Amino acid sequence: MNRITIAIDGYSSCGKSTLAKQLAKKLGYSYIDSGAMYRAVALWCIENNVIENGVTDKNKLISNLDNINIEFRFHPEIQASQTYLNGRNIEREIRGMAVSEIVSKISSIKEVRQKMVALQRKFGEDKGVVMDGRDIGSVVFPNAELKLFMTAEPLIRAKRRYDELKAKDTEVSLEEIKENLRLRDYEDTTRKENPLVQAADAVVLDNTNYTTEEQFDVAWELAKARL
Ligand code: DC
Q1: Quick check: pTM over 0.85?
Q2: Which residues line ligand 1 (CB under 6 A)?
């Protein structure tokens, strides 16, 4: 069977990672969460005082990009990959609100994107990869065999994210999440460098009224047709 590249893009909290993991598992492919990479850089910025009082010291960040080492390590006990920053497991920390609040700003910096895109292409060089993000089908893998563009109604997205964070005991309100998603949508779609756009050959998947199983069935049919 052909090994293909599957690119999944879309707004924040649209279920991209759930679908990407399901497809990767079914196909025995690796799953790369490109958002986690930008989140890792954002966490590095917080820990290294690159952002103070909302102001980003871009020069400090850019001159330190080579000191930010991001990897994914597979954990057989949970059958999932987790994100590592300079050898430390940061999977939990990067999902919190402190990182969510600054990650769009950090990911809009050209030099950060260049480094992440190069790394993402390296992770996917042998195909057999499912990668989710904002610019995977449009920039990272423009020749991906399957491109999905996911969307859902804003309130549904906020509620899903709220339930996810509550399940992890994160202190957060639905209002805060709605506002964070609104701001991130704005920043992700209006930034100059590689904004979130639907690739011309992407298939739109609106999962507002789908269960995760229904969503998988739709995507799996599309993937099978390309294998
Ligand atoms: O998918 P996520 O919510 O974990 O992504 C976190 C942020 O990273 C998101 O606000 C936009 C940015 N991002 C990006 O700019 N390009 C990507 N390929 C993935 C994420």
Answers
A1: yes
A2: 12, 34-35, 38-39, 103-104, 107, 133-136, 184, 188
User: For residue 12, which atom of ligand 1 is closest to its CA?
Assistant: 3
DSSP 9-26: EESTTSSHHHHHHHHHHH
Burial (CB < 10 A; 0-12, 13-18, 19+), residue 29, is: buried
Distance 204 CA to ligand 1 centre (A): 18
Position 147 confidence tier, pLDDT thresholds 50, 70, 90: very high
Residue-wise DSSP of 53-73: TTEE-HHHHHHTGGG--EEEE
In the prediction, which pLDDT does 169 show?
86
Q: Whose CA is nearest to atom 11 of ligand 1?
A: 104
Burial zone of 77 (CB within 10 Å; 0-12 exposed, 13-18 middle, 19+ buried):
exposed
Q: What count of Cα atoms within 13 Å lies in the side-chain half-sphere of residue 200?
A: 2
How many angstroms does the Cα of residue 51 sit away from the middle of ligand 1?
18
pLDDT level of residue 53 (50, 70, 90 thresholds): confident
Q: Which domains does the chain have, with CATH numbers?
A: 5-226 (3.40.50.300)
CA-based nearest residue to 19, from 153, 225, 217: 217
- Distance of CA 124 from the midpoint of ligand 1 (Å): 18
